[in-house]
Amino acid sequence: MEKVLFVNCCIRREASRSKMLADFFLSELLKKGSYEITELCLMDENLSYMSEGNFHQRDLLLANRDFSHHRFHYAHEFAQADKIVIAAPFWDLSFPALLKTYIENLCVEGITFACNEQGCFGTCKADYMIYVTTRGGFYEGSPMEMGSKYMEAMSQFFGIGKYDCVAAEGLDIGIRPVEVILEEAMEKAKVLAGNF
Ligand SMILES: Cc1cc2nc3c(=O)[nH]c(=O)nc-3n(C[C@H](O)[C@H](O)[C@H](O)COP(=O)(O)O)c2cc1C
Known about the structure:
Number of helices: 6
Distance between the termini: 13 Å
CATH superfamily: Flavodoxin domain
Order of helices and strands: EHEHHEHEEEHEH
Largest sheet: 5 strands, parallel
Mean pLDDT: 97
Number of domains: 1
Bound molecules: flavin mononucleotide
CATH class: Alpha Beta
């Protein structure tokens, strides 16, 4: 069984269209019978972003190369997963700050990445990251779309070779029915789940 880490940042929980899309993708994966999915629901976590005291604590631990502290368990869990699925809505041209806070907790030199004379390189085990999102407007291919673009860069940074995004767009514009847009995105999700 391959270990899939599902990072749920769908703030609106069961009302979230991004969550609906992610659930569909995960249900397609489960049909294959070869994945063990662990959900990390960020809304249930007490994540801290780096402010002064929090930063100094981290600095001290890293100086001593003490990676056993509880604050690093998100990074360990992420680094050890075989595949990663992240779901979040498109907010303010990227994603909720909660996801950025989680990423801040993931970026630990010595756990998820390392550095040498040539620069930094990812040390995560996963070979594939899927990012699931839904957007109110239309941003695919636009320089203003910085959610998926950022996640793709992070995926590379962590050393995860393959990245794909499943997105549904224009959900709040009212031009096309939401169900039709979601169904189209589910078709893409089905194909990606098949090749996961
Ligand atoms: C705080 C907030 C910020 C948003 N920012 C954007 C945005 O910048 N561009 C956009 O097209 N839609 C934006 N939206 C609309 C959401 O992207 C859209 O409703 C999406 O489907 C929400 O996903 P969810 O159903 O998973 O919560 C925003 C919605 C909220 C609540």
